[in-house]
Design a protein that fits this description.
5 helices; two-stranded antiparallel sheet; Pnp Oxidase, Chain A; globular; 214 residues; seven-stranded antiparallel β-sheet; mainly beta
Length: 214
């Protein structure tokens, strides 16, 4: 149903290890997730072509997030300092704080409707009248649910989860006549998942974390 994804169809969440709900990250202008799927050609005597091309492990994953406004609440999650922010005792973050967290997660949700068509974000999204979603089924936590009707809550078409992010770099760019842009870079290894439909936060931070099918 989708030929291109517009900015109103993508929501990004920075999830800390103790979060019990999703909290959207505001003022983000871009997010890039890259996985290096390099394959090693295995040769053998007697055959010109390789007999196998297995993936080179571990698979390095990089994530870059661009934002036009610094938000202490968002980045307190990066430093695993959200409890201090909520208590009103956090007034600044430094590089050592940002390097402290070992279990940060990046969650990207892709929707069929824009936020304007749906009338809100995340839990406030609803299926618009006469929209293409009506009559379509949706998925939650790997289960095929009922079909959409007008006014139902809209769930994402797919959810992308990158686990165990470690911040590697941070920078700021300011050009004359333009907004200042902050860029945060992260790395991970192997733990990148793309799931059909929605994934509840309890299956990301709880004991039932996303894992490959066995």
């Amino acid at each position: 149903m989708i030929g291109a994804v517009r900015q109103g169809q993508v929501e990004i969440y920075i999830v800390g290890p103790n979060d019990s709900s999703y909290d959207i990250a505001w003022r983000l202008t871009g997010c890039t997730i890259t996985a290096d799927l390099t394959r090693e050609a295995l040769a053998e005597l007697g055959h010109l072509s390789p007999y196998d091309r297995p993936l080179t492990l571990p698979i390095p994953i990089t994530a870059t997030i661009d934002t036009t406004a610094g938000d202490l609440e968002n980045w307190s999650k990066v430093a695993d300092q959200l409890s201090a922010f909520d208590a009103g005792t956090l007034d600044d973050l430094d590089l050592a704080d940002l390097m402290a967290s070992e279990d940060l997660k990046l969650v990207v949700m892709v929707y069929a409707q824009t936020d304007e068509e749906a009338g809100g974000t995340y839990a406030n999204r609803t299926v618009m009248a006469a929209g293409s979603l009506i009559g379509q089924s949706y998925w939650i936590d790997g289960t095929d649910m009922d079909i959409y009707a007008e006014g139902d809550r809209e769930y994402p078409l797919k959810t992308i989860v990158v686990e165990h992010l470690k911040i590697t770099d941070e920078g700021a760019t300011l050009d004359m006549g333009a907004n200042m842009t902050q860029t945060f870079g992260f790395r991970s290894t192997n733990d990148l998942y793309v799931v059909k439909g929605a994934v509840s936060v309890g299956n990301i931070t709880g004991g039932l974390q996303i894992r490959r099918n066995t």
